[in-house]
């Protein structure tokens, strides 16, 4: 069990360093000038039904992010403290903020692949730190039952990473306008 938390701690340190470097080294103007990178991120499928998955994932993460601030003892820092993650006060606020921002970006269809990458990472950590330990504590069926929303959000995030925002999105509008 300690090994899982140690791996998550290493992962979070790496994630924080990467996002810090990304924000310091690249401004939005640098991103917009890099047309091949922008095309890769904004390119999307013309499938009309993607909006359903995008809204489902976006609204769930927006709601969960808000709840981390409304109920910090059960959803935010208190929960992170209970499962043994490092620096739970900072982590609760950080994850809540990322969930709110990613949720809004997914709902609107703005840089959805970047938002989905963040939600995908959050779900990987959630499954590793909370659901896998439940298998040894409560059995496989109980763990699968408890993790159904986590797996749905993981799959939805992965789907958006692969397919993009869809036709009803700002990403599609910006790509079409070029």
Structure description:
It contains ten helices and no strands. It is an all-alpha fold. α4 crosses α9. 26% of the residues are buried.
The helix/strand class is mainly alpha
Radius of gyration: 17 Å
Detail the poorly predicted runs.
22-26
Largest sheet: none
Helix content: over 70%
Multimeric status of the protein: single chain
Cα end-to-end separation:
51 Å
- The helix/strand series, from N terminus to C terminus, equals HHHHHHHHHH
Structural shape: globular
**Total helix count?**
10
Strand content is under 5%
Task: Compute the number of strand runs.
Answer: 0
Rounded average pLDDT: 84
Topology, element by element:
Blueprint: H1 2-25, H2 28-33, H3 35-42, H4 50-70, H5 77-83, H6 88-108, H7 112-138, H8 140-146, H9 148-163, H10 170-177
Helix pairs in contact: 4-6, 4-9, 5-6, 6-7, 7-8, 7-9
List keywords for this structure.
mainly alpha; 178 residues; globular; single chain; 10 helices
